[in-house]
């Protein structure tokens, strides 16, 4: 019983340290890859608690390896926009000039009702006052009004590309649902 207690404390400390090393995001702000890594680490960490015959090192080494890989991938994403887009996705316009883009909603598998809910959370009663509604890679909705788009530089490069590539088109070939 004492062995299990000590193992539990050690694993708690190590997993907490690993998560802190990877970054300080809340679960709702995590990218898909970060969430997957967190789930994998928790699964690996539970193994020595379930089987006390298993050496603790057999779980600690994979956890540290996964943390190291996550740090390297994060550094790669910081340096390369293409890598970030490939791993995390990119912002996708779902509202343009006050009109919802049904094709984009289908690609993302999001209903109009879901978008209305997100708009209400941003204090918009409907899409008519929205220049661009953007689903971000983490799944949140960003709302840009005419004032926001008037050249103050808040758009990401991916979003600027979508805006300029689409012109007045309804669909968005550049935003093919890679999220």
Structure characteristics:
four-stranded antiparallel β-sheet; 4 strands; 2 domains; 179 residues; CRO Repressor; elongated
Describe it.
Helix 1 (2-22) packs parallel to helix 3 and helix 2 runs antiparallel to helix 3. With 179 residues, the protein is of the alpha+beta class. Residues 167-179 have low confidence and may be disordered. Strands 2-1-3-4 form a four-stranded antiparallel sheet, sandwiched between helices. 57% of the residues lie in helices and 8% in strands. The protein is elongated. It contains eight helices and four strands; from the N terminus they run ααααββααββαα. It folds into two domains: 2-86, no CATH class; 90-166, bsu07140 like domains (CRO Repressor, 2-Layer Sandwich). The longest helix is centred in the middle third of the chain and has 23 residues, at 57-79. The chain has helices spanning 2-22, 32-50, 57-79, 81-88, 102-108, 112-121, 146-149, 157-166, and strands at 92-96, 99-100, 132-135, 141-144.
Task: Compose a concise summary of this entry.
The longest helix is centred in the middle third of the chain and has 23 residues, at 57-79. The chain has two domains: 2-86, no CATH class; 90-166, CRO Repressor (2-Layer Sandwich). 57% of the residues lie in helices and 8% in strands.
């Amino acid at each position: 019983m004492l062995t299990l207690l000590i193992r539990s404390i050690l694993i708690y400390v190590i997993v907490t340290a690993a998560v802190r090393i990877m970054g300080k995001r809340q679960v709702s702000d995590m990218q898909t890859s970060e969430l997957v890594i967190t789930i994998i680490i928790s699964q690996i960490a539970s193994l020595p608690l379930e089987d006390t015959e298993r050496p603790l090192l057999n779980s600690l080494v994979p956890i540290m390896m996964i943390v190291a890989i996550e740090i390297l991938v994060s550094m790669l994403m910081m340096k390369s926009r293409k890598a970030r887009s490939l791993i995390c996705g990119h912002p996708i316009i779902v509202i343009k000039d006050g009109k919802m883009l049904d094709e984009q909603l289908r690609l993302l598998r999001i209903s109009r009702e879901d978008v209305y809910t997100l708009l209400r959370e941003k204090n918009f009663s409907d899409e008519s006052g929205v220049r661009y509604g953007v689903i971000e890679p983490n799944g949140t909705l960003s709302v840009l009004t005419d004032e926001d788009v008037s050249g103050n530089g808040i758009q990401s490069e991916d979003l600027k590309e979508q805006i300029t590539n689409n012109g007045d088109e309804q669909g968005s070939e550049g935003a093919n649902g890679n999220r």
